[in-house]
Each structure stands twice: as C-alpha cells, then as structure tokens.
Specification:
about 525 residues, alpha/beta, Rossmann fold, six-stranded parallel sheet, 23 helices, about 15% strand, binds iron/sulfur cluster
C-alpha cells in the first residue's frame, strides 16, 4: 500500500429488493432483511479513511433520489433476483464516472456474467481485499476483475462500527426492528443444494459477540436480533454461554435459522430462557436427498410424524416457527411429497411453512454442476430467481403442468382461510399471530398463490413460455421481458444490451477450465499498466 491514501467518495448499496413494491409484507419486513456484508464493507471503507454514503434499498424508496451522487467507487451487494437492477444501476453510475464493484450472493453465483457489468466482482470478501479495490479504484472494462479472498474473513467490524448503517436500515422498519448479527459462517452439514455446504464452519470470536450484545443493550430498550448465521447453534453451548454471559436472560429477543438436528428439547428450553422468539428450521424434503433412489412410503410418513412432534415441541417453548421446504427436488415424485406436507400442516397447525422452488443459482451449490451437465437448467432472467417466481430446473419426475398443479394445490391448502385460522389459533403471542396473518394474506401467501395460478394458465396458452420451459429455445418469453421492463421503470433504458440473458452452463464451463478466472488479490489480476495507474 502506498504512503498516501487518496480519500475517495464511496457509495455502498445494499439491494434488499429488486423493484418498487407497495406490499404490506415489504413494508413490515424488508428493512429487517438488510445484509451484514455491505455494512461491514462500509465500516471498512470508513476505517480506511474514505467518505461513505450508504443506501439500503427495500423497494419502498425512490431509488433515483437515494442513489449516491458523485462517487468515485460504488459497491453493490444483492441476491441474484436483484441482478438486473444492479446491472442497470452500475451502467448508470459508470456513465457518470464511477467505478463499480459487486459483492454478495449474485457475485458468488454468477461471476462470469457480472464481470461484464462491473469493474470488480468480489467472491469471499475481506478487509485486505476491500483495501486492494479502494487502492486500485480503476475502470476494468469490458471485463471486470473477478477477485476473491481465500475464504470468509476471520473477523468483521464490530456492531458499534456498523451501527450507523444498521440504524439507516432500521429507520425504515415501522413495527418490528431486527438488528442483523452473525456469530458464525459456513456449515458442517453438506446439503447438496446449499451455498454454505462447501464453506467450512467458522465461528467468530465469542468475546466480540459479547461486546456486540452489550453495545446493543446500551442502544435500544428492548432489542431484537436476527442471527444471520447459516446454521445457528452449531457450537451451541459456547454460543449460549456467550449470550448468557453478556446480557440478562430475555433482555434481548432473538430469531435464528437452525437445523432440526440442533433443536433438541434441552437446547430449545435454553433458547427460550434466553429470549429466542422465532426459529426457522429447514425440513427441506421428506426423503433422503443424498440417495439416488427414493425411500418413500412408510419411512417418509414416519418422518412427517417425527418432524411434526419435534416442531410442536419447539412451539411449546418458542412462539414463532417457520419450517422451510424445497419443492421440486429430484427425490420428489407424484402426489406423495405434497400430500405429506399437507399432513404435516394438519399435525402442526402453528407452524408457518416456507416453500422454495428448487433453483440452481449458478455456482452456488455442488448439485448445480450435475444439473448443468444434464442440461436441465433454464436461463430464466435473474430477476425471477427468487425461489418463487420461477423454477429454473426442469423437474426430474414431473411435467410442468402437473408440477404447478401440485404447487398450487399445496399453496391453496396452506393459505386457505381455514388453515390460516388454525395457525392463528395455535399461536400464543400477538406478534406471531399478526406476522402469520400479514404473511398469509400478503405477497408471500395468497399473493404467491395468485402468481402460480397465473403461470399455470399461461402454460396452456403461451407457446413461447412452454418452449422456454421445455428447453426447446433459450429465447426469453416476452411475458418475462415485459415484467422486467415494468419493474425497472425509468432504469430500463440503463439495462445493458444482452443483460437479460445469461449462460446457464457457465459454472460447468468454468469447472472444466479449472476456473482460472478467480484471482485472490487485485494485484494478481491486474494488467501491468493497471498497477502503474494505481500508484503502488
Ligand atoms: S441447508 Fe442448512 S444445514 Fe444444510 S448445509 Fe445449508 S446451512 Fe447447513
């Protein structure tokens, strides 16, 4: 690093959502979905002496008014569903002279695609990597630099350092305010569809965790924390010891995603004592996903009963539980998996079931290589890859019409007034009741059902859509193009040529080449003249 640091104007944009929305669920929850890494990047940039403008976009703001102005460098972070928005914004800001960088899940899943629209595409992101980018801060066009640290960072900025950016997001949360915190990265389990299955489990320092919790207690009267750990409680006792040591039991309320294996009754009781109010375990499937052949029937029915008993046990101690399922896995066939989930809902009336359609997000998960190899990945525009609007994998055991009929039937059952009434009655506390109702009637429940029905009707009438889903053409159906055009509004004209399409085989091709595109530092990736320009 040179002696003199040029003070830059840096923008950091957390794209929590992909388009303007007025949905009730968005008003209540989107600000609570703010990510930690953009806040960390903003804190690192400040620490390194730069001026930072931070924006958390939840879909409720006027983006044109909130966009950082006159920046030298703008970092974006977002999921794949926000990619087209990010590409258009990057193009706009580049036209105004800014250098742009993309990090977060989309950058990790589709780096080759993002390289066309950003000067830097970041894999694992650490403070030295951000420092490299700030020091280089140069245009890399037409193809951006794809750089990555060796792994996730060993430490993150403290909550106190992130606090201005946390507050920025929470000001937009009208009722429920969740402070994002994280105590670990990666996961020791190996679910083949999961982005964290290939990242080694790594806890952060428990001492930092304690001081973060103490800091939070000094800032808010009755704080609520959303743990962003991919799988909370892997080192359960260490984690809970740290919480108990830092703050009086129940003085902070917590929500966390945890695998069922960790949620034994003694663990859940200890969580209850410590203020855990919401848990989101993954059930994923009634079948063993690791096995090629399905062991259905009795074994799956037993699993429904067993999981239902466990979740009813959890709900005796923790008022809000969402159980997550993936629909369309290769292990699913016929009516059985859907009927088993309905049975589970009957046996577990208080639970909120969260459904995701199987989606292959580029290089997110090992399973995707296999899916690309068998040519089953459909190049849906990224805008629709949010686990719900589109399933970009041809199902192994279903025709599309049958698959969506079954998804509609299950969704209609889950969000019928009768089932929602039972869900409300089974909840003890008022906040979970209210949240269940909002989620059920808003964009997530009945809203999504309407969207599935619309798609199902189109399957019978829209030949372009059929051909696209059957992999007979890679031409994006006009129906989808129109939705992106509508959602991007005034930004549509900034969406670069070709940015609606992507190569659905990019991961497979990169793996065959031994993936030479990833450099671990900017200086390794830059051409010589770039180095000279950066003044190193
Ligand atoms: S789905 Fe959950 S348990 Fe499985 S690898 Fe991912 S984080 Fe771990």
């Amino acid at each position: 690093m040179g002696e003199h640091v040029r003070k830059l104007r840096v923008g950091v944009i957390d794209l929590v959502h992909k388009a303007p929305t007025k949905a009730l669920y968005a008003r209540v929850m989107h600000a609570n979905l703010a990510a930690i890494m953009p806040q960390a990047v903003a804190a690192w940039c400040q620490e390194l002496g730069h001026q930072v403008e931070f924006v958390c976009y939840t879909g409720l703001e006027n983006l044109a008014r909130e966009l950082p102005q006159n920046c030298d460098l703008v970092f974006f972070c977002g999921f794949t569903e926000a990619a087209q928005l990010a590409y258009a914004l990057s193009n706009l800001l580049r036209s105004q002279g800014a250098v742009t960088a993309l990090g977060g899940p989309h950058a990790r899943c589709y780096p080759e695609d993002a390289q066309q629209y950003f000067d830097y595409v970041l894999g694992f992101t650490s403070r030295p990597l951000i420092q490299d980018v700030l020091q280089d801060c140069a245009q890399h066009r037409p193809l951006g630099l794809h750089i990555s640290a060796q792994g996730h960072p060993a430490t993150l900025p403290s909550l106190e350092q992130r606090w201005p950016f946390v507050e920025h997001a929470l000001r937009k949360a009208p009722i429920l305010k969740l402070v994002p915190m994280i105590g670990s990265l990666g996961c020791p389990y190996t679910c083949p569809f999961c982005i964290d299955s290939t990242v080694p489990y790594q806890p952060f320092s428990f001492e930092t965790l304690k001081s973060d919790l103490r800091f939070l207690s000094s800032r808010m009267a009755k704080p609520r924390v959303g743990w962003h750990d991919p799988n909370f409680g892997v080192r359960f006792d260490d984690y809970l010891d740290a919480i108990e040591d830092a703050v009086p039991p129940g003085s902070i309320e917590f929500a966390a995603e945890s695998s069922l294996a960790l949620l034994t009754e003694p663990h859940v009781k200890r969580m209850q004592r410590n203020g855990f109010k919401a848990l989101l375990p993954g059930v994923e499937s009634w079948y063993d996903m690791g096995q090629k052949s399905r062991c259905g029937g009795r074994q799956a029915e037993d699993r429904v009963k067993h999981v239902s008993e466990q979740i009813n046990m959890i709900m005796r101690h923790v008022p809000y539980v969402q159980a997550n399922f993936v629909l369309g896995l290769d292990s699913d066939e016929g009516a059985e998996p859907f009927e088993l989930t309905k049975k589970f809902i009957d046996l577990t009336p208080g639970v909120f079931p969260g459904y995701s359609l199987l989606t292959a997000f580029g290089r997110a998960a090992p399973l995707n290589l296999e899916l690309q190899l068998s040519n089953r990945v459909i190049p849906f525009p990224f805008h629709f890859l949010d686990n719900n609007h589109a399933m970009n994998v041809q199902p192994l055991n279903y025709e599309w019409s049958e698959f969506y009929d079954r998804v509609i039937d299950l969704s209609a059952y889950t969000f019928s007034w009768r089932t929602m009434g039972r869900r409300l009655k089974a909840s003890r506390d008022s906040l979970p009741r209210w949240l269940n109702l909002v989620r059920g009637v808003s964009s997530e429940g009945r809203g999504r059902l309407a969207q599935f029905r619309n798609l199902r009707r189109r399957l019978d009438t829209d030949q372009d859509l059929r051909a696209f889903l059957e992999r007979e053409t890679e031409q994006t159906p006009g129906y989808y193009t129109e939705i992106v055009r509508r959602d991007l509004g005034a930004l549509w004209k900034w969406l670069p040529e070709g940015a609606l399409q992507h190569d659905p085989q990019a991961y497979l091709k990169a793996s065959r080449l031994g993936d030479p595109s990833v450099a671990t530092r900017v200086v390794d990736a830059m051409p010589r003249e770039g180095l000279a320009g950066a003044g190193s």
